Amino acid sequence: RKEVEQDPGPFNVPEGATVAFNCTYSNSASQSFFWYRQDCRKEPKLLMSVYSSGNEDGRFTAQLNRASQYISLLIRDSKLSDSATYLCVAYASGTYKYIFGTGTRLKVLA
Amino acid sequence: NAGVTQTPKFQVLKTGQSMTLQCAQDMNHEYMSWYRQDPGMGLRLIHYSVGAGITDQGEVPNGYNVSRSTTEDFPLRLLSAAPSQTSVYFCASSYRQGLETQYFGPGTRLLVL
């Protein structure tokens, strides 16, 4: 079992739709979580960090559920420019390693 | 700030050749890491460093060496290239590991024939 798991998709959604991705992690010592966005053939870029209380940045909302060991990303009012692969990342205390999920591909359709 | 830079952008090697992928950052970051990204596999950690003079192995270290003689530079050496090392390689850095986000370089696309 991978340490960080994501549904690879693709999620094909119309413009304006709301879409949600989940990501599960297996290491209960994981303490920091991030969502990255990666465009085709480009480097990953931070979308947002995920805080225990949940956090929002414009159309994007991230949630953490420690009891069930998953994090989520909600995108409201999807734009064509949101089409990308979204990577979930977990960092476990003492490991010095950021562990990436394989990514969820999103395609927003006109 | 240039951020994280990587050279070369593209490289073709023959099996058995060696080469060094360069990575540098100008943000005074303590933590640096190397990943490889293959289709369907996501980003996998090769080696990382928590500061100058300190390196350690990640998930897939075999066939690769690293060193960290300065805070700025973290080169990745392929000792004897194999077709299985055909991949996209990303270098990343963060001020400290764990609570801080990582910044990625633009990547090096490597083809081993």
Gist of the model:
The complex is a heterodimer of chains A (110) and B (113). Chain A has 110 residues and is an all-beta fold.
Shape label of chain A: globular
Radius of gyration of chain A: 13 Å
> What class do helices, strands and sheet pairing of chain B give?
mainly beta
Give me the oligomer status. Answer: heterodimer
Helical content of chain B (DSSP H or I, runs of 4+): under 10%
Helix content of chain A: under 10%
Reading the helices and strands of chain B in chain order gives EEEEEEEEEEE
Number of discrete helical segments of chain B: 0
Terminal-residue CA separation of chain B:
36 Å
Strand content of chain B: over 45%
Order of helices and strands of chain A: EEEEEEEEEEE
User: Mean pLDDT score of chain A, rounded?
Assistant: 94
How far is it from the N-terminal to the C-terminal residue of chain A, by CA? 36 Å
Mean pLDDT across all amino acids of chain B: 94
Walk me through what this model shows.
The complex is a heterodimer of chains A (110) and B (113). The model of chain A has no long low-confidence stretch (mean pLDDT 94). The termini of chain A are far apart. Chain A has strands spanning 4-6, 11-14, 19-25, 30-38, 45-50, 55-57, 60-65, 70-75, 84-92, 98-100, 104-109. In chain A, a hairpin with a 5-residue loop joins strand 9 and strand 10. In chain A, strands 2, 4, 5, 9, 10 and 11 form a six-stranded mixed sheet that branches. Chain A has a five-stranded antiparallel sheet with strand order 1-3-8-7-6, with no helix packed on it. In chain A, 35% of the residues are buried. With 110 residues, chain A is mainly β. With 113 residues, chain B is mostly beta strands. Helices cover 0% and strands 51% of the residues of chain B. Chain B is built from no helices and eleven strands. In chain B, strands 2, 4, 5, 6, 9, 10 and 11 form a seven-stranded mixed sheet that branches. In chain B, strand 9 (87-94) and strand 10 (103-104) form a beta hairpin. Chain B is globular and about 35 Å long. The termini of chain B are far apart. The model of chain B has no long low-confidence stretch (mean pLDDT 94). Chain A binds chain B through residues 8, 31-32, 34, 42-46, 49, 87, 91, 93, 96-103, and chain B through 31, 33, 35, 40-45, 48, 50, 56, 58-59, 90, 97-99, 101-107.
